[in-house]
Design goal:
454 residues; alpha/beta; eight-stranded mixed β-sheet; six-stranded parallel β-sheet
Length: 454
Amino acid sequence: MAELHTGVGRQRGACPAPHPRRIATLSVHTSPLHQPGTGDAGGMNVYILEVARRLAEANVEVEIFTRATSGDLPPMVETSPGVHVRHVTAGPLEGLTKEELPAQLCAFTAGVLRAEASRPPGHYDLIHSHYWLSGQVGWLAKDRWGVPLVHTAHTLAKVKNAQLAAGDRPEPKARVIGEEQVVAEADRLVANTAVEARDLIARYDAEPARVAVVEPGVDLDRFRPAPGDGDRVSVEARRRLGLPAAGYVVAFVGRIQPLKAPDVLIRAVAALRAHDPVLADEVTVVICGGPSGSGLDRPTALMELAATLGVADRVRFLPPQTGDDLPALYRAADLVAVPSYNESFGLVALEAQACGTPVVAAAVGGLVTAVRDQVSGVLVDGHDPVDWAGTLGRLLPDRHRRAELGRGAARHARNFSWQRTASGLLAVYGEAIAAHRARLASELADCPAMSRSW
């Protein structure tokens, strides 16, 4: 396989890549202003907003287009200097499922094109679309505006369908076709990890030269170990969240849906109780998040599962946490569990590690990059609750090992930052713009009549 671009740095002696002035970021199905952990809001929302802020700090204006879901929303919101979120009216002013959104792509595209038409010609230097629905819009806009399209998939249907949780619905054929079209049309494809890059190439026939790996980051100022805490677990954080001061806390943070597999953690506690009831009675499992996707079909399914397995007394449910409460939850936990069937990266794992909390994660997708096995956490092969119970049963009583992993987690997380991500994206943007201009120059050279008209 051809060598992949890393999205950071350039060869010594190479000409400087063009620096974009303004970019249009497309996020059709979810707004970066939505609370992560609710509906379809998750790591992608965090990614878009955090990257936009860092790009603005690098003197790149960012305008984020997303679908309006309420009549109370203003047409434009400035989230920080240089970053604006534009709410595009496309369909009813209410939340729609991702399955309902393709019918509104024409309306959304019209709104995006009209917004650009109200600007001076050449207002945007580049389009960056997120998720395949946005890629469809970006594909049309790039041809209309004559600018390059950079696309980040975040999740891929073919990968998800190959790793479905039991009882989960496969992604529809229409999405698979839509992704194939976007992959073929995008000037550059940004993958979160080398694993995702290989999937784009092997499963979607992406040209390796157009695939760049730019890893996501974490806000290292917000997510950090508790200062001056001799014992890594923050007792103050537990008090703040109403969690037991004594015993062990294992936290799951994310949207509640089969893909994220919080049921694996509950089943693991039940398996632990069968094997070591004394230890299991010291464990509190915290499920923090709201129903999403196919999890909306049975929003109380996890509560019912815990009751059926006889571990309802060991499970606490919390709504998605905002502000300082989310890092407090990470600091309150002895371990954070990420048992997903697939993750393009796994921002929760990175946030937890930045707080000095070891992560137990499934060895899938981007999690093998986000978690350094046996250094910042432990990767588990598969989703067998007995295997997960064994890992929890070994780590929880071993305070020395958890402390060692906690230190490794904080060190590992420091390798990632949103500034680093933004720098990598700027390199990709510059390459896309340079290649686009070179192609236009070549076309003009091949067509003298057109060249004279310019």
